[in-house]
Amino acid sequence: MVDLGMKVVGVSRKLIGAPQRIDVSSGEGHTGEMVLVQGDVTQLRDISRILNWTRKEFGRTDVLVNAAGLFHNFRITSCDPETLKKMYETNIIATLLFSRAAVWEMMANRTTNGHIITISSLIGKQDMNAFSGAYLATHDAVRRLTDVLEAEVKESLLPISVNNIRTSHRLVAKKHKDHIPIQDITPEDIAKAICLAVSLDHPY
């Protein structure tokens, strides 16, 4: 995205202090830049602060990429409830709240070609023996959330595209019968898919 000339704002809970500019361009001649800001995407106040900072720094928000996620492999009935709550807040609530806020921000800024992209998993029922139902349910919820948001945006004729980029997994067993998720596609593949999505004009 930086190589496309975009101003990219990344959000990190662990960042301490002021926003940090990161050099991630692949060559000379690119006008894009990457800035990391501190924030917790499960918190409304942080979401508002991040969008306000982006508006003041770069003028507006045109693209949102929801990529935050937690994985815990446990049973609902035997897990720590606070850990379960945090996973659902990160995987579902953060996507819901940030997407909603981004739509309003784009409307306020009169964007003509907005994009909301959510990265989720293709893990399905066949993987129940390796992944907990609690984790799988978050991905089902995110996919449904994306479908509903896309329908609302189309109904309102907003110039915003809503996409869900799904990563696939292949499962292999170790001798001690643990299951390890291995991505069939690379982070570079996901980045290319995101860049393709944001380079297209909205269809309505």
TrEMBL record:
The keyword RNA-binding does not apply. Keywords: Oxidoreductase. The keyword Transmembrane does not apply. One of its GO terms (molecular function) is oxidoreductase activity. InterPro entries: NAD(P)-bd_dom_sf, SDR_fam. Coiled coil: none annotated. SUPFAM superfamilies: NAD(P)-binding Rossmann-fold domains. Belongs to the short-chain dehydrogenases/reductases (SDR) family. This is Dehydrogenase/reductase SDR family member 11. The lineage of its organism: Eukaryota, Metazoa, Ecdysozoa, Arthropoda, Hexapoda.
